Amino acid sequence: MFVESSEGQELAALCLDYGYRLADKAVDLTRPQINFLIAALVKRFEKVAAARSNEEGVTKFVFAGDEE
What we know:
Helix content is 51%, strand content 0%. It has 2 helices and no strands.
């Protein structure tokens, strides 16, 4: 999945953190661009949730791999 690649993560950071735009207007975004942005946002929320679940006495394993 592109959003999990190093290039995808870099583009996601530019878009989500620094306001980089893939099109001049939101209505000009293509379906793949919209899907990418949503997937990047979901990945970001998953990482934040995993980071916040570090309560005392809780052990959590997060596996990430190539799903292709």
